[in-house]
Structures are given as structure tokens and as C-alpha cells.
Amino acid sequence: MSREPNNNRSRGGGRGRYGGGRGEDRSPLPPPQPANSRWGNVDLDGDAGSSGGVAGAGGGAGASGSRGGAGASGSRREQRSIYGGPQINELGFHGDMKPDKRTEQRLFGGDVERQTTGINFDNYDNIPVETSGSDCPEAITEYTIETIGEALYRNTQLCGYSRPTPVQKYSIPIGIAGRDLMACTQTGSGKTAGFLFPIIMAMLQRGGSEETPSSRRRVYPEALVLAPNRELAVQIQEEAKRLTYCSGIASVVVYGGADIQDQIHLIDLGCDLLVATPVRLVDLIKRDRVAMDNCHFLVLDEVDRMLDLGCEPQLRRIVKKEGMPMGEDRQTMMFSATFPPNIQRLAADFMHDYIFLTVGHVGSASEDVTQNVEYAEEVD
Q: What is the pTM of this model?
């Protein structure tokens, strides 16, 4: 995909971060010949069935619908990028918008771990929560269409999420308000949904960035989630695929220890929300396959572990030296189990007027989470 940053987006409402959307409607193009894309099997005339998903990418199957909160008039069919590359849906993203029973069963059925399983919500309500910072938004107490929007509410029902955990009660309204967040949370507190919800809501409100011609095959993700290791990155991606189902947002995960060419193929199909480990992302940036110029949402999950692994140079390069928007043009959320001086310095360098959120006892794991350690031989 070839996309250059859009630095002239009009904004309105709130603090000016996410309002307005794209504000113009691109005219439909003639249907092109099928190409290597997650939309390749979709009938652009709207009469055919859905296509299957792509491993590692979010969504169900492609279709058009009415655009909400993005400033475009009417609706239009998904069209291939006018400069080649992956399909772009009516929201300006690259994911699938039409329900697909097989994808839905894979994401939500059978053995999918549900938030209501194994969690003592009565005890969760007793976990101490503290916030500091100016003008902290009021916490939410339940998931409704009014609090999280129609698309996310539908997916929370499919996930079986009954009510928000303490970190979600506070992080979701903070994120929706466009505020930066530094959160110290326990393991098992539900923080993944806590940062994915507001990012997805804001992305749907503002729409995707406009495309401009370029000879370089780069992708320009709108949101970036950095995790310290492959296991956590994959876990975040699985949650992102469930929460972005039928939303039109395409999520992709990249990490070390896997074939980089396979991961390049996935991001070339279209990537709006990128989950990555720092070293692998720097590698892709060096190869000129990923650019940060359109990344208006940044999450650093378990940032204390990333610093313990010596990833601070990569973090500073990604955030400071690769054209990522700064200040109020980017929303940043950092999550850590501890808050030592090196993380405080990183927060001060990366965030703007942030709210500090503490959930439970800093540095500990939730007493209601069972942690199992299984020994494996090196050959396994």
C-alpha cells in the first residue's frame, strides 16, 4: 500500500483531536480486476457473498454501509486504492465490515476465553483506584451504546463482556476524552480492552487518512501498540481482532522470531492498527515498509518490561525520530506494573498533560487471577 501522511485533516469538537473525520467523499471507481488482497474475493457490485479473513489480520468480510461520524455523504462501495494496493472501505480503512459466520465462530465461539470466566467481579469492585491530573473524566459503570458506541457494544456482547473492570471504567472515558494516560495496573486487570476501546472508538470517529501517490510501498498505520514480547503481542492482537470485528479496521501483528516476509505480506494487505514488538518494528522501518507519520494513537504496554529488556533506544527512535505526530496530535497511553524513575522520564518525554491512574497495589498481580507456570524443555 502506498500512503503518505495527511497533515491537513480538519478537526472540530472537543479538544480538536478526533472531531470531524475526513469531511469529503471520494467518487467511486470502476471495479478493478481481483488482486492479492483481503478483499480479493468480494463482488464489488454487492451481489456476492463474503470472503474469508486473513491470518493475522482483523475483520470478517467486506461490504459497504452507512458511514458514521466521518463527515461523508451517503455511502459508497469499497474500492481498491486509486494508487494500487489493498482495498479501502468507506471509512478509509482496510478491514472487513460485513458479518461472516465462520469468522464470527472462530473469534467468539467455542474455546474463546471470555472476560466473565474466572473473574470475581464483586472483588474487582473493591480494588482501590486512584487518579491524578487535571479534569479527569467521570468513570463509566456499564457498557452501553451511549458509552462505547454501537460497533464496540455489539462486539462486547459477542465476547460475553458483562461489565467493565476497574481499569476499563476509568481508562475508557479518559481515552474517549482524548487525554494521555499513564496507568499502573495489576496483571489480569483487563487493561488490553481498556486501551483498545478508546482507540477503536476514536479511529471510527475520525476515519482513515487520505491517500496520496507514492512510489514507495509503505504502510501508514493509524494506531500502534508496542508490547515487550511475542506472546503479549499475539494476545493483544487476538483481542484486537475480536473488538474490531465488522468495524472496518484492520489489525496486524508483527514480532521477532517469525518470517519477516510473511509479516510484510500481511501489512501490505492493509494495516490500520499495528501491534508490534519494538525490535521487529524498527527492522520494518529500516526496510522502508512501515512509516509512523499517520500514527495518531500510541500504546506502550508493560513498558517496564520493555525497558528491562533494553528496548529504550528503539522506543525513542520509533516515537521521536520517525515522523510520528507529537503533542496534541497524538494520544499516548502507557501501562506498567511499576512506576520507577526511568518510566517517569519516559512518560514525561512521550506524553502531554497526562492523567495518572493507579489500579490495585502497584507491582502486584490480581489475587483473583490464577497464574500457571509450565516447564518446557529447550527442544520444545
A: 0.72
